[in-house]
Write a structure and sequence with these properties.
Among the domains are: 4-46; 61-100. The chain has seven helices and no strands. The protein has helices spanning 4-16, 21-28, 33-46, 61-73, 79-85, 90-100, 124-130. α1 crosses α3, α4 crosses α5 (79-85) and α4 crosses α6 (90-100).
Length: 141
C-alpha cells in the first residue's frame, strides 16, 4: 500500500514522461505497471487520487441481523446458521454476534478464582466402562 503522496508523485511523473510506464517505474522503483495505470485512470476521472483505500462491506446490516437472529432462535448453536446458510465462518459470525448482541455470548471460565481447576465429574457410564469385570473379549474370526 502506497501513501497518497507516493501515488500522486508517480502519476505526475507518468504524465511528465509522456505516459511511459517502464521509464516511470525504473525512475521511482515502486509501482507495478497495472497499479500505475489504474492510479492514472483514477486521476483522469476525478482529477485527484483518493486519500485511502476503502473496501465496501461484504454483507449488509440486514443480512448480519438475519444470521444473528437465526443463531439466537436455534438454541444458540453457532454451527446452525453456518450449516443453514453456508456462510459465514465461525470467526466472522462470532464477530457479528459481538457487534450486534454483545450480551449473547458470555464465556464461562474453566478455572476457579483461586486458580485451581474444578474436580472432574465422571458419569456412571464412564465408570461402568472402565470396570474390569465388565470388559468382554471380542473374537473375530
Amino acid at each position: 500500500m502506497h501513501s497518497y503522496e507516493d501515488r500522486f508523485r508517480a502519476v505526475q511523473l507518468y504524465i511528465k514522461l509522456d505516459k511511459r510506464v517502464g521509464l516511470t517505474i525504473r525512475q521511482l522503483g515502486y509501482p507495478t505497471k497495472n497499479a500505475l495505470k489504474s492510479w492514472y485512470r483514477e486521476y483522469e476521472r476525478r482529477l485527484d487520487l483518493p486519500a485511502g483505500y476503502v473496501c465496501p462491506p461484504r454483507c449488509s446490516q440486514a443480512h448480519k441481523a438475519r444470521v444473528v437472529g437465526q443463531y439466537l432462535e436455534h438454541s444458540r448453536c453457532i454451527a446452525e446458521p453456518i450449516k443453514a446458510l453456508g456462510y459465514p465462518s465461525r470467526s466472522l459470525l462470532s464477530a457479528w454476534l459481538q457487534e450486534l448482541d454483545p450480551q449473547s455470548r458470555t464465556r464461562a471460565s474453566v478455572r476457579r478464582h483461586d486458580g485451581q481447576r474444578p474436580p472432574r465429574i465422571r458419569s456412571d457410564s464412564a465408570v461402568f466402562r472402565r470396570h474390569p469385570d465388565c470388559r468382554r473379549r471380542l473374537h473375530f474370526g
